[in-house]
Amino acid sequence: MLLTSNYAPGYRVDRVLGLVYGITVRSRGLGGNIIAGLRTIAGGEIKEYTEMAHQARQQALDRLSDQAKGMGANAVVSVMFDSTEIGNTMDEIIAFGTAVVVSPVKETQQLVKLS
Q1: Distance between CA 92 and CA 49 in Å, rounded?
Q2: Pick from 23, 20, 105: which is nearest to 69 by CA?
């Protein structure tokens, strides 16, 4: 379970295991840069870069999830992304959060005995 919030509704945090992250560095190939460059002339969405960004974020999330599972977590809270341009051709994408162990909250009903 990956959550951007600090908590999971209906669950309680039993243990905090620590920081986890997934990182990837991506570069568009020369051919992709040329096609994308030509698309900028007309304006609008550059689908090659949109797809690359989607794939990079998914890979960062997958790596974050794998690291959390390796620590024994069943959830990650406070998940966020950050990205940094490296030179003019590469982007670093990182997903990070806090690995936790959560369990469902069991609601107990208390019956009040009227006398």
Answers
A1: 14
A2: 20
For the record, the structure tokens of 32 come out as: 């992709």
Buried b (16+ CB within 10 A) or exposed e, 66-100: ebbeeeebebbbebebeeeeeeeeebebbbbbbbb
Domains of the chain: 11-104 (3.30.110.70)
* Tokens read off for 107: 């609601």
Summarised one tens digit per residue, pLDDT across range 6-61 is 988 899 999 999 999 999 988 866 555 666 666 667 667 777 778 888 888 999 99
- Cβ neighbour number for residue 63 with a 10 Å cutoff: 17
Q: Is the dihedral of CA 50, 62, 65, 24 positive or negative?
A: negative
pTM of the model: 0.76
